C-alpha cells in the first residue's frame, strides 16, 4: 500500500441452502470477477465458503459502490438457488502497526455482526487499529 493509498478488504459470505455447492460457488466467483472492473482489484477464495476481495486505492464510498453492485447482481441467486450473499469489509489506511492476521480475525467477527444483517446485506467500515 502506498503512503496515501487505501485498501478495502471485503469478505463475501454466501449462505448456501445445502452442503455441496460447487456449481453455485463457481457462479458466485464469476459474478465477483465481473463486478470488480479494475486490473488491480483481487478476488480470491478464502476458505470452503467465503471469498475475499482486495480493492486498492478506494475510499469507503467507492467500496460501497462495488459491494452494492455485487449484492444487486447476486440477488437472482436467491431466486434461482436459495443463496443469500452477505458482505462485510474494512477500509484500511496505511499504518505500520496494522497486522493483517488481526484484520482477518476482526473481519470474520464483523461478517457475523448485526451490522451486516441489514436490508442491504453488507456494511463497510473504516478500520480502527486497536
UniProtKB/TrEMBL annotation:
Q: Which organism is it from?
A: Saccharobesus litoralis
Q: What is this protein called?
A: GGDEF domain-containing protein
Superkingdom of the source species: Bacteria
Amino acid at each position: 500500500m502506498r503512503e496515501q493509498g487505501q485498501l478495502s478488504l471485503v469478505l463475501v459470505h454466501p449462505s448456501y441452502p445445502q452442503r455441496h455447492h460447487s456449481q453455485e460457488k463457481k457462479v458466485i466467483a464469476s459474478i465477483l470477477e465481473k463486478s470488480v472492473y479494475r486490473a488491480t482489484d483481487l478476488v480470491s477464495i478464502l476458505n470452503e465458503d467465503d471469498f475475499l476481495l482486495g480493492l486498492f486505492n478506494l475510499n469507503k464510498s467507492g467500496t460501497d459502490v462495488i459491494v452494492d453492485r455485487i449484492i444487486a447482481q447476486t440477488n437472482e441467486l436467491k431466486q434461482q438457488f436459495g443463496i443469500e450473499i452477505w458482505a462485510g469489509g474494512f477500509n484500511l489506511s496505511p499504518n505500520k502497526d496494522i497486522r493483517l492476521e488481526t484484520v482477518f480475525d476482526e473481519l470474520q467477527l464483523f461478517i457475523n455482526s448485526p451490522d451486516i444483517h441489514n436490508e442491504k446485506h453488507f456494511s463497510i467500515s473504516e478500520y480502527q487499529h486497536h
